[in-house]
Design the sequence.
C-alpha cells in the first residue's frame, strides 16, 4: 500500500469518524433530555459497533466468528441508511432547534420536540424503505427490432439484475423472484450481473443455488458477471456453481438461440481491476456474430451505450446503478451514466437499465423499487433494402 493510498484511507477514516461522532452526539443530547443520560461507555460502544458493523461483519463472515459476524453485518447494513438520512436531517434539525431556542421556547420544544420529529421521520423512512426493498414490482417495456428472427415474431424476456445474494438477501427473496418471473411467463430469463453480494460462501452454504435453479424458461436462463462477483474474488467457482444449476455465465461469449437471435454476454468492466483479465470491446465481440440476426447484449454497467450503438447491438440490458437505491442518490447516478434507469433509444439501439431486484448495504429503497423487468420484443423483417 503506497503512501498516497494510506493518506487517502486515513483521511476517509477521520472524516467518517467525525461524522459518526456528530450523529452520536446529537443522539446523546436527545436521549439525555428525554429519558436521562445513558451510560456513556455502553452508548458509545454501541455507536462504534453500529458504525463499523458492516465492515466487521464482512470481514468475519467466512471465519469461525460467523455466528457473530452475520447479525453484525445486518445491523451494520441498516446503519448505512440511518447514517445517510441522519446527515441530511440533523443539520436542518439543528438550525430549527437553534431558532426555537433563540425565540425563547423551552427545551421540551427545541430539543425534545425537534428530536422526536427527526426520530419519527427516520422511522418512517426505515419502514417505507424496507417495504420498497422487499416488495418487488414488475416493470414492463416493449421494443421493436427491425430484423427477422426466423419464424419467431415476438420474444418475452424476464430480466433481473443485482440480486446481491449473501448474508442479507437469501432464499426468501429468491422465492419472490421466481414468483414474479412466473407471472411474466417469459421465453427467456436474463440476469445482467451482481448475482452475488461479494462472497460466494453464503450462496453455497445456505443452499441458494437450489432456490435459483427454480428459474425456468423455454429458451433457458443466462447470466453475466457484475463488479461484485469480481470483488468476491471467486469468479471461476461462481461460474461453476451456476453451470451446475443450468445457468451459463457468458464471459465475452455469445449464444445463438433457435437460429433466431443472439444473446451476447460481456464480462463486467471491473474484470480489468480484479485479475479478471479485462474484457473485449463490443466491436470485437460482434465481429464473428451473424449480424443479420437480432443481437441482445448483457452488460452489467450501462457505461458503453455509444459503443453498443456503433457496433450494431439491437437491445442492451444492464443494471448496476440501483437508481441510486436511496434518494437523493439518483441525482448522482444520473450524472454518472447516460441512462441510469429505464429505457432509452439511441439510433437502432434499445437500452434498458434496471434498478435491480436486490440491493447493496441497507435493506432500504427510497425513490426506487426492487424490480423484475418484462420486455416484450417484436421482430419486424423490413426487407434488406429497408434496413
Sequence:
Amino acid at each position: 500500500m503506497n503512501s498516497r493510498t494510506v493518506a487517502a484511507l486515513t483521511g476517509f477514516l477521520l472524516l467518517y469518524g467525525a461524522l459518526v461522532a456528530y450523529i452520536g452526539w446529537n443522539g446523546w443530547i436527545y436521549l439525555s433530555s428525554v429519558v436521562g443520560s445513558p451510560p456513556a461507555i455502553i452508548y458509545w460502544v454501541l455507536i462504534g459497533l453500529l458504525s463499523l458493523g458492516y465492515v466487521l461483519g464482512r470481514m468475519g463472515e467466512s471465519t469461525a466468528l460467523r455466528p457473530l459476524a452475520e447479525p453484525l453485518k445486518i445491523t451494520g447494513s441498516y446503519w448505512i441508511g440511518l447514517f445517510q438520512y441522519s446527515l441530511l436531517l440533523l443539520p436542518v434539525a439543528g438550525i430549527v432547534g437553534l431558532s426555537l431556542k433563540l425565540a425563547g421556547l423551552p427545551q421540551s420544544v427545541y430539543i425534545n420536540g425537534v428530536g422526536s420529529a427527526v426520530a419519527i421521520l427516520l422511522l418512517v423512512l426505515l419502514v417505507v424503505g424496507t417495504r420498497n426493498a422487499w416488495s418487488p414490482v414488475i416493470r414492463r417495456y416493449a421494443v421493436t427490432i427491425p430484423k427477422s428472427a426466423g419464424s419467431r415474431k415476438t420474444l418475452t424476456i424476464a430480466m433481473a439484475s443485482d440480486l446481491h445474494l449473501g448474508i442479507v438477501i437469501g432464499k426468501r427473496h429468491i422465492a419472490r423472484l421466481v414468483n414474479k418471473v412466473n407471472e411474466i411467463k417469459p421465453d427467456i430469463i436474463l440476469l445482467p450481473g451482481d448475482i452475488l453480494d461479494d462472497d460466494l460462501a453464503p450462496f453455497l452454504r445456505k443452499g441458494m443455488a437450489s432456490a435459483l435453479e427454480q428459474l425456468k424458461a423455454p429458451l433457458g436462463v443466462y447470466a453475466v458477471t457484475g463488479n461484485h462477483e469480481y470483488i468476491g474474488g471467486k469468479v471461476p467457482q461462481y461460474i461453476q456453481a451456476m453451470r451446475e444449476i443450468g445457468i451459463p455465465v457468458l464471459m465475452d461469449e455469445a449464444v445463438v438461440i433457435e437460429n433466431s437471435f443472439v444473446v451476447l454476454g460481456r464480462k463486467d468492466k471491473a474484470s480489468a481491476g480484479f485479475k479478471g483479465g479485462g474484457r473485449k470491446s463490443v466491436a470485437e465481440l460482434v465481429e464473428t456474430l451473424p449480424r443479420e440476426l437480432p443481437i441482445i447484449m448483457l452488460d452489467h454497467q450501462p457505461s458503453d451505450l455509444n459503443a453498443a450503438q456503433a457496433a450494431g447491438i439491437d437491445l442492451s440490458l444492464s443494471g448496476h446503478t440501483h437508481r441510486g437505491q436511496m434518494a437523493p442518490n439518483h441525482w448522482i447516478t444520473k450524472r454518472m451514466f447516460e441512462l441510469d434507469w429505464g429505457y432509452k433509444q439511441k439510433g437502432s439501439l434499445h437500452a434498458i437499465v434496471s434498478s435491480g431486484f436486490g440491493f447493496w448495504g441497507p435493506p432500504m429503497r427510497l425513490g426506487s423499487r426492487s424490480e423484475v423487468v418484462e420486455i416484450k420484443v417484436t421482430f419486424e423483417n423490413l426487407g434488406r433494402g429497408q434496413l
About this structure: The chain has a mean pLDDT of 94. Residues 138-386 form a domain with the Purple Acid Phosphatase; chain A, domain 2 fold (CATH 3.60.21.10). The chain is about 45% helix and 15% strand.
